[in-house]
Amino acid sequence: xxxxxxxxxxxxxxxxxxxxxxxxxxxxxxxxxxxxxxxxxxxxxxxxxxxxxxxxxxxxxxxxxxxxxxxxxxxxxxxxxxxxxxxxxxxxxxxxxxxxxxxxxxxxxxxxxxxxxxxxxxxxxxxxxxxxxxxxxxxxxxxxxxxxxxxxxxxxxxxxxxxxxxxxxxxxxxxxxxxxxxxxxxxxxxxxxxxxxxxxxxxxxxxxxxxxxxxxxxxxxxxxxxxxxxxxxxxxxxxxxxxxxxxxxxxxxxxxxxxxxxxxxxxxxxxxxxxxxxxxxxxxxxxxxxxxxxxxxxxxxxxxxxxxxxxxxxxxxxxxxxxxxxxxxxxxxxxxxxxxxxxxxxxxxxxxxxxxxxx
Amino acid sequence: xxxxxxxxxxxxxxxxxxxxxxxxxxxxxxxxxxxxxxxxxxxxxxxxxxxxxxxxxxxxxxxxxxxxxxxxxxxxxxxxxxxxxxxxxxxxxxxxxxxxxxxxxxxxxxxxxxxxxxxxxxxxxxxxxxxxxxxxxxxxxxxxxxxxxxxxxxxxxxxxxxxxxxxxxxxxxxxxxxxxxxxxxxxxxxxxxxxxxxxxxxxxxxxxxxxxxxxxxxxxxxxxxxxxxxxxxxxxxxxxxxxxxxxxxxxxxxxxxxxxxxxxxxxxxxxxxxxxxxxxxxxxxxxxxxxxxxxxxxxxxxxxxxxxxxxxxxxxxxxxxxxxxxxxxxxxxxxxxxxxxxxxxxxxxxxxxxxxxxxxxxxxxxxxxxxxxxxxxxxxxxxxxxxxxxxxxxxxxxxxxxxxxxxxxxxxxxxxxxxxxxxxxxxxxxxxxxxxxxxxxxxxxxxxxxxxxxxxxxxxxxxxxxxxxxxxxxxxxxxxxxxxxxxxxxxxxxxxxxxxxxxxxxxxxxxxxxxxxxxxxxxxxxxxxxxxxxxxxxxxxxxxxxxxxxxxxxxxxxxxxxxxxxxxxxxxxxxxxxxxxxxxxxxxxxxxxxxxxxxxxxxxxxxxxxxxxxxxxxxxxxxxxxxxxxxxxxxxxxxxxxxxxxxxxxxxxxxxxxxxxxxxxxxxxxxxxxxxxxxxxxxxxxx
Lengths: 359, 687
Hints:
Chain A is mainly beta. Chain A has 5 helices and 28 strands. Among the domains of chain A are: 64 residues, CATH 2.40.50; 54 residues, SH3 type barrels. The longest helix of chain A is centred in the middle third of the chain and has 9 residues. Chain B has 3 domains: 86 residues, ATPase, nucleotide binding domain (Nucleotidyltransferase, domain 5, 2-Layer Sandwich); 146 residues, Rossmann fold; 343 residues, no CATH class. Chain B has 18 helices and 25 strands. In chain B, helix 3 crosses helix 4.
């Protein structure tokens, strides 16, 4: 890694871009059934793929229960075949007064060697589009890739939920001061707060029917509460911080009132995208935007976002990219960029702490 | 995956894919010896937004080519074999620690035999054992099927039986497993590795062939007394490669270009620790500890027995939050030289998990980072120790064996840019006693060597012999309880030009002498008073200067980390200054203010009690407490087998011979061909 050709991390903030997102079954779910096909136009709430989590199977030993000598004897005694749906208590095989009953409601999955296997009804899962777009790719075993255009803002943490709603800024008194007085206009909205999220703010989702919350940060002690919240929560800066970078604030202000998808994906090693908010915007007939470039190396003059260890960020501009490592105030000696912050301060910033908004 | 043998191996390119960094290096044959030419690292790109590890690989290899004046990339592929005019390399190998571990269900007959061996075989690969099933549990067939299916495994590891023994029980296990697989959609079926009774291997392959991918290996427990896990480990690596390619599509082209697919780099750590432990002139204990962003690996060779511990939930980046959950707040707070609320500690860990590559940008956050790192290293040490001597009771209260060589790896440790700081972190967390050679693997050489060892063990021996690792220095660590600022050790260094350097080191310090990199010197350290060094009153050794010079650690063992935050503030800040040579970064007074009790967690039951203020006696010069909180009860045993090079000295006051001690032969430099014996050792390890 050198400062001369450093490719910084991207946390995208783009007013109009091409967005491609996987809409796949969650880890552990299977039996994918696609509800769409390549090229199909899809709406925000369209179900694209259905699946199921594996459910327990019940193995019924027909030979033992019916006292058979040979497994093949079971065939003539069966009242079901593999693939049949059965109810709890339903007789699946009978020999005289002896009978084999299904202990659960489910499906006969396999009959062989004198055994009948019945799978309980599984927990189903449905994956919706979440954006207005077009299906670009399909993976018959997992889901699809949808392509759309719109404004995109990515955050650092989400609570694993997704919702649609219009973007609205919090009342002047803030979420904590609003209580029951939060107006009807906020019902079903995705509320942006400029303050650190607190338990009272999260509680509003349930009591006031708020669709989702976007905040600069919250204390990590609220994590459990946030994960149990009925709707999505997106943190744009980090844990502990109360400050929202003015660039992000302005970006959201420009989108206020627009219909947005808040996809608060939990960041993980295997997550295909970051927690984010997407706003579909009308497209010009020509000059459709390109997807964000992954080949975005730092250059002098480039606007950047400087990440601080306290979870906050500050905007700035690259002044220079020294070749040699710099010693920080804490003694670490690392490769840095010389950055002019929006406060006018000029300082070396570790390359690893620099993010760009994408292009 | 290409298996074609290169007719001649003049150049080797290796890449290691980490969760944060992708590192690449080039090795060339120079004057008959393999030599590390250069290395680079780039931010990894397997995740958003590129979602393609090949992007970072191409960036790294392009940069590597620029530095080494060799074109390595053609289009989007690594050029192999080497072409005229320094184009390409003869071999490309890839290792990785990326992604989530293999979810594995282990099936065996007896928990103490085949199952235990199978579980030991999983060390070296990123495996998460999600279920174990044995015949001894006498489960109903339906229950066995459910436990397999509901565990959603990537791999079924079936073992059991001794070679030539009864086949029926193993056959039943395999039949049940096959039935479970048939009930799963084909795309969701796990792979199968069979390493049980050899007489069933063919039958098992046939049974699973149409259901899923099958790997087979010789029985891990061919008889009750013999455990053979290495072949199964190789097959586990192949399974890891296969699943890595399947899960992250971008790894497929990487694996296709690599001579041996994409290997788990943890396997390299175990192999090289074993080799280093056995290849020393007198067998020495060796530890390699890699604390990464998402995963950590500790490989050790202790008394000739090698093993590795992998934790896919321990790291100081992606896994920082799970690390904190595992060790508890107090294990981190114990290293902080200031008061910190529970929320502040948690916030730091969660922010690190959200932005794993981030570097601490202030004095305060550096302490949080290093507190997490030390806690991670200590945890890895404590969970690994039972593997080193399984015949004894596990737990942190056994004496820590002496380690002649410790190699650290991972961005948080190797990326400080300050060799003294890295050495201090290793000493703080691992607390070795006696004489220890401290090294860093900043270039991911060890992962590369593990992959190269499969087809060119000669190169591995030469690269390790020519000091391909970054030498921090040799550390002399005193055991016992030195008195602060009272003489604890006398040091005599004889430099190559005959100059003698003498020093008396007071207790409670990290003392450094800046012996130049690669410069040889004879060092004599005497422990004063009742202190010991490696169980002896003194040692005389020939050392080679490292980036941190020579270190004499007179802080004592166990490390007397002050329990009182004010004392710790002075103590820890002083240690950083001593280790780096910087002036002391004083801890701000307001940082020492007590945090209200309601936002400080109760110490967990397994933490040592903190002394009351009345019982503390602070030393004003260093701030160290007279009643320190011991971090462990690690005690040093008699060190007869300490290491090859140290020579026991007579006690202070006794006459010593004027004749110079016979020096061990100098280690071979890169240009000299190494002896054949170590290569054979490595071949044996691989066989």
